[in-house]
What we know:
Layout: H1 6-15, H2 20-29, H3 36-43, H4 51-61, H5 65-69
Helix pairs in contact: 2-3
Amino acid sequence: MKNAIGKNIKKIREKMDITQDQLAIRLQVAGWQVDRFIISKIERGERQLLDTEIILIASTLKVSIGNLFEKQ
């Protein structure tokens, strides 16, 4: 089963001009032990996300949770 927000995370991340590694580091600083490989799986829709992870990603990317779920 694919996640619904991976593509949006990638678009937002690229719009912010940050790499998967940089996003992973920001998430690690926020308390989630994640690496670039997990970010890649999330963006491809191959890894499901917990609600707490979605909240942390939105906060780290400085967007609303709704932005992550917007239909593109």
